[in-house]
Amino acid sequence: MNLTTEVFGDVMVVHAPDELGAELAGQLSAYLSSRRRRRIVFDLDGTELIDSAGLTALLDAQDQLRQKGGQMRIATSNPTNRKILEITRLDRQLEVFSSVIEAVKSFQ
User: Fold this and answer.
1) pLDDT in tens, 42-72
2) Where in the chain are the domains?
3) Which of 27, 53, 55, 98 could be stapled to 22 by a disulfide with Cβ–Cβ 3.0 to 4.6 Å?
């Protein structure tokens, strides 16, 4: 899986694909667990479709990072994605920020 990433200090920003669904969920977990960085911001701004498997993949990724002593933040200004996180109450389990900059700064 090729995901666009950026590094800001010790924080890696992962830009999510257009669709975050069942086809990519397993690959996403494997991708994130193979990274050495323990602080990850997952940017959902460019994601147009998130299904239940995609949401589960986000939770699994967070759990994997926590087991390694890491942390994950979600960044999205996309109102649809924010609503999905609110409706599923994942905004209570994942730390969600309005921008990548805010999410990266939250690690300091």
Assistant:
1) 999 989 999 999 999 899 888 888 888 889 9
2) 4-105
3) 53
